Write the structure tokens for this entry.
Amino acid sequence: MAELAMQLFEAAEEGNLEALLACVAAGADPNQLHATTGGAVAPLHAACWAGHAHCAAALLIVGADLEVPGVFGLRPLHYAAGEGHLACLQQLLASGAEVDARSRRGATPLYEAAMDEPSEGRDGCVAALLAAGASPSVLGPDGWTPIAAAAQHGRLEPLQQMLAADPAAALLKTDAGQLPLGLALEQGHLLSARALLADGVLPPLHIA
């Protein structure tokens, strides 16, 4: 049975729907966790990390747990958001995934989608999460909000979307006392800095 469970996990990771369904029909548990170098993950994590939406859909149909915690407490929605796999993310949201689920360090799926380099997929995930009610003001690792992460990485479009959803989140500081504006300026992301200033929430800058 352990070998069958591993075959199911590999099928989800590789996007092999035929093999996945065969494993399930033979009795493989879709929620069986598998050890990796970073911790234990389930087949649904693997499918969402790799962007195999058809396999994620099949796993959900046969009873995969939407909220199963994986490495660092990350759930399938975190994986889909962080990798920019919009189709997987939309399936998870439509199935009732918790939009502001938090990892052990406090990261939400919106934080995961905002924290990395720009991509069309990650930008789409930010928009989808916001439409589903995700909060840009949830404090994540080291007190970083999704808005802070977007500012630090120069993610202009997601930053603007999050400011429109929750302007006051621009005033939330990290544990180190940094505002999103300061993070954008430190990295030379002038367009992001202008967006934060144009929002009208930040107090006037005082130059000594």
User: Anything to note?
Assistant: The two ends are 69 Å apart (CA to CA). The chain has a mean pLDDT of 92. The first strand starts at residue 34 and ends at 35. The chain is about 50% helix and 0% strand.
